[in-house]
Amino acid sequence: MATQHEAETVRRPALSEYLRWSVDHKIIGVQYGVAAFLFFMVGGAMAMGIRLELWTPTLDLMASGSAYNSLFTMHGTVMIFLFIIPMWAAFGNFVVPLQLGAKDMAFPWLNAFAFWLIPPAAIVILLGYFVTPAEAGWTSYPPLSTLFSGDGQTLWALGAHLLGISSIMGSINFIVTILNMRPPQMIIWTMPLLCWAVLATSIIAVMATPFLAGALTLLLLDRVAGTTFFDASGGGDVLLWQNIFWFYSHPAVYIMVLPGMGVLSEVLSIHCRKPVFGYRMVGLSSMGIAFVGFTVWAHHMFTSLQPELRIPFMITTMIIAVPTGIKMFSWLGTIWGGKMRFTSALLFALGFMSMFVIGGITGVMLAALPFDIHVHDTYFVVSHFHFVLFGGSVFAIYAALYHWFPKVTGRMMNERLGRIHFVFTYFGFLFTFFPMHIVGMLGMPRRVAVYDPNFTDWNQFISFWAFVLGFSTFIVVYNVIHSYFRGPVAGANPWRALTLEWATTSPPPVTNFDDDPIPFEDPYGYGTEASAAYLDAVDAAFSGGRPTPDGNQAD
Amino acid sequence: MENNRSNIPSISPAAVVVAAVFLLVSVIGINWFTTFVPEVLPAQASAESKSVDELFYILVIIGGLVFFLIQGMLLISVIFFRVRDDDRSDGPTYHGNPLLEVVWTIIPALVVVYLAVISFNVWNQNSEPKAAVNMINGEETVIRVTGARYAWTHNYETSRLNPEGEPIVINSGDKLHTYIGQNVDLELRAQDVIHSYWVPAMRVKQDLLPGNPDTGGRPTEIRFTPARVEGVEYPAEYPIVCAELCGDGHGRMRGTVIVYEDEAQFLEQFYEPAIHAILNPPADPVLRGEIVIQEYICNSCHTLDSLGWSSRTGPSMNGIADRAGERVAGQSAEEYIATSVWNAQAFVVPGYTEQMAVFGPDQSDANKMSAEQLYAIVAYLCTQGEQSDCDNENSTVAIPEAIKTAFGLDVDITFGQGDSEAESAASETSEEAGESE
Q1: Chain A CB within 8 Å of residue B89 CB
Q2: pLDDT value at position B434?
Q3: Closest CB from B42, B244, B313 relative to A442
Q4: What is the predicted pLDDT for the residue at A552?
Q5: Interface of A with B in 378-407 (CB under 8 A)
Q6: Rounded to whole angstroms, what are the CA distances from B75 to A318, A354, B122?
Q7: What does the pLDDT read at residue B431?
Q8: Do A373 and B204 touch (CB under 8 A)?
Q9: Is the pLDDT of residue A492 over 60?
Q10: CA of A502 to nearest chain B CA: how many angstroms apart?
Q11: How many angstroms separate the CA atoms of B393 and A56, rounded?
Q12: How far is CA B326 from CA A200, B321, B329, in A?
């Protein structure tokens, strides 16, 4: 069997290599990805606990309101700091140097160091859960997080500090890599859009994360050194934290979403066999979002900010809808008239568009100050940011997983399981989070274990679908493990994609490319004879033919 | 040259039909959803709620158009541009259309400008300070709201004077009493952490920010004007909800807005009876205690069936009089209860944490307590039990020195018939005791 023979010629790293210090960006990428997915499971289990508690309007599962508070605090912290942000570092690490035709990241050792900060940070944060846990939410507003919280809050801040350092180091690495390590034929306007998105993301992370570090330092000083930065009775100001924290944490939303948008541009173009519509505007809108994203932070403070400062932030917040809309319409233009192949990667990319648009619409609604005043800090907001971060980021993460898994492991994922996974995830997600808009508007605040019994039916509906959504995760876990060992051999370029990561074996050799690879003139130039010739040449170079994109039929 | 516009597939008649159907669906869908709007919002119980809901209505229409446009285009794409998995051909090489890109940049920009303008107008109209706020009997009143973990306290600083010539303060606990058309303007202060005062039916919300108590805290303001809701019987009640995470009991931190039909009903059912009760306190310390204890936020943490309290953050008060005498060796039930009300940290019940604040004349806002009030509370709690250990008849209780110092008492509290002695002792030494006279 030809495919068997090919499998033997492409060596996969031994599993033990993933457990060791390695400066190979591909190993580090997988380390990031597996670690982040484990934290996704941990955070997801916490979400199941939250939904179980909310099955009834009284406290029953949890011993106290504090236990519930610490549960959603850890859920938010784990999902944001230990899942989504590291998960994008995973795909960025694995894919970006390959797309640039580079042999590794610019600073391999720094890259490894940034990853290895995550396990100790995670241990510190999760251990905090077992000593008087943090219970002030992932936003940790003082004075609740300073004068009224236990030692777990200190550990939370220390762990978040480490993760911030990791994020800054990783981002500097991406910026230097993307700006300096492109092949001579690739100008910035022929760079794959994932690289654009990672570049924009990294610029945000380098500029914003120091503010998180500053805020956490002040918080730690208040907690352990007796300072009063956030204590009014000592001359401090509780809003100081909110300003510094959101100056980081709003741009952090784009840190979590922009790479997903880069993934969308890749996946839609490749699986619809059509160039990205309006490439320059898609790339520039990433930069536009990054820039405007720094001017909107105080919309998180609409109910605490001085009233006269609220209007300017309403206006900047609304403006950010424009570059986001450009992306959405450009993607529609990309798939319009294309030749869509319903791979799992494409399904999740379409799912992203379908769900993220709801998060975008509610984002504009929330920007409208008078309406926000009503729904601020309610389930409407919970719903909104899950549409952005789950309907957006997580759907894009799944799309990226199905798209690049063949490159990472050399094996195709099971497409039938992928479709089942998509159906469960799409409907589980939609029916979990859409009704939250309504309970929020009706009067249910967020972060409560005890709620108005009038909302019981809504909450039971939400919880039921949340359990369906939780179940869907096991399908992809099974698919990944099964496909890693049993999946059909992928070949170098199963999707017939033009970007450079597909112009090498799957998985790529340690140095990525045997020679300096020459990128095709247009990363998304599908449909021309030149591109077909280029793809045929890639296939020929890596021999053995290739299995069909639907991995099930390959053997 | 294949790279030109003509390469995009011409849209088939079927696609036009689907587009038309989808347009129809979206119009019907948006129309249906807008009729659904009142169902997903609480009652419109304030003037502000009407303009906010109108804004929401516009947001739903515009958002609905965007929603159906995007989902419709996705659905059409999925139906018409799907190919079999073994179709290896590529789509048209179509790189974009600058005119289209300009259009879909400019139109959303104009839409958000429009939304910003109408939002600004609604905001201006709703947040503008009003003349003649909190009018009661033709005079403006200051209504102070304190948020403390985990309860609201409303204090009306009225223009009526007590016999000492001081303005009477009505403490209505977690209830805000108002009437249709009253321009409510509340002064909000947080005592410990940040809270957020949200009245969903009024569509208003404002955070309470902890400030420096020495400089009067950091007051914030919230304004609304209750409006008539058709088909509602007055007085009507609407929940007050804490919307900012404040700790263990955050979900329970609720209150009630009671809206009376007009000022006359407000005066008759709330204001005058409250003034009367303050000017004529019951002689029986137990009855006084029952009133006083409800002015404090004890219900936010404790259970006490006889007053309908059900919170579980602190120990239950049911049957406290039976247990209090056995809790600490050498302390009577009265001593134990008095000490625990003043400074709960003195004897923390096993299984509970040190969360309760200190109460006393030297404390601020919701924690201010006179010796007179402490005495009434102890007398009331001493009745909570089957076989009370308290001796409410003619007993003199040796009050610990620390409490005497804190409350400015110089004699012990005497219960039962002899309570006038304690009263006079308290009134001599405490500035706050005047209201009992």
Answers
A1: yes
A2: 37
A3: B42
A4: 41
A5: 378
A6: 27, 10, 36
A7: 40
A8: yes
A9: yes
A10: 17
A11: 46
A12: 68, 10, 7
Backbone dihedral angles phi then psi of residue B246, each to the nearest 5 degrees: -130, 5
Last residue of a domain, one of B275, B295, B326: B275
CA distance A528 to A534: 10
Interface contacts (A, B; CB < 8 Å): 277
Q: Say yes or no: B267 and B320 in one domain.
A: no
pLDDT of A9 > 60? The answer is no
- Under a CB-based contact definition with an 8 Å cutoff, are residues A277 and A334 in contact? yes
Q: What percent of chain A has pLDDT over 90?
A: 88
Q: Do residues B106 and B241 both lie within one domain?
A: no
**Residue B291 sits in a domain of what CATH number?**
1.10.760.10
Residue A47: closest CA among A72, A80, A22:
A72
Task: Summarize the confidence of residues A336-352 as an average pLDDT.
Answer: 95
The per-residue pLDDT for range A142-198, each reduced to its tens digit, is: 999 998 888 999 999 999 999 999 999 999 999 999 999 999 999 999 999 999 999
CB proximity list for A362: less than 8 A, separation 6 or greater: A380, A383, A384, A387, A437, B63
Residue B294 lies in a domain: yes
Cβ-based burial of B291 (10 A; exposed 0-12, middle 13-18, buried ≥19): middle
- Give pLDDT tens digits for A15-28: 899 999 999 999 99
Examine the domain organization and report whether B175 and B289 are in the same domain.
no
Q: Do residues B354 and B408 both lie within one domain?
A: yes
**Per-residue confidence (pLDDT) for residue A543, from 0 to 100:** 67
CB B74 within 8 A of CB A332: yes
**Residues B292 and B427 reside in one and the same domain:** yes
The answer for A 40-79 residues in CB contact with B (under 8 A) is 59, 64-66, 69
Candidate CATH numbers 3.40.50.300, 2.60.40.1930, 1.10.540.10, 1.20.210.10; the one for domain A2-11+18-553: 1.20.210.10
Query: Which residues in chain B come in under a pLDDT of 70?
Result: 1-12, 15, 365, 387-400, 408-437
Phi and psi based region of residue B178 (left: phi greater than 0; alpha: psi -120 to 50; beta: remaining) = beta
β B195-199/B204-208 pair status = antiparallel
Question: Are residues B144 and B23 located together in one domain of the fold?
Answer: no
| Distance of alpha carbon B148 from alpha carbon B208, whole angstroms | 10
B327 and B422 inside one domain: yes
Smallest Cβ–Cβ distance between A66 and the set B218, B244, B248 belongs to B248
ipTM: 0.91
Q: Give the pLDDT confidence score for residue B10 in this predicted structure.
A: 54
* CB-based contact, A314 to chain B, within 8 Å: yes
Residue B402: give the domain boundaries.
281-436
Best residue in A273, A326, A451 for a mutation probing chain B (most B CBs within 10 Å): A273
User: Would B89 be classed as within a structural domain?
Assistant: no
- The strand order across the sheet containing B195-199 reads B175-179, B254-260, B236-242, B195-199, B204-208
Position B170 in a domain = yes
The tokens for A345 are 């990667």
Q: Is residue B355 part of a domain?
A: yes
Which has more confidence, B304 or A387?
A387
Amino acid, res. B420: S
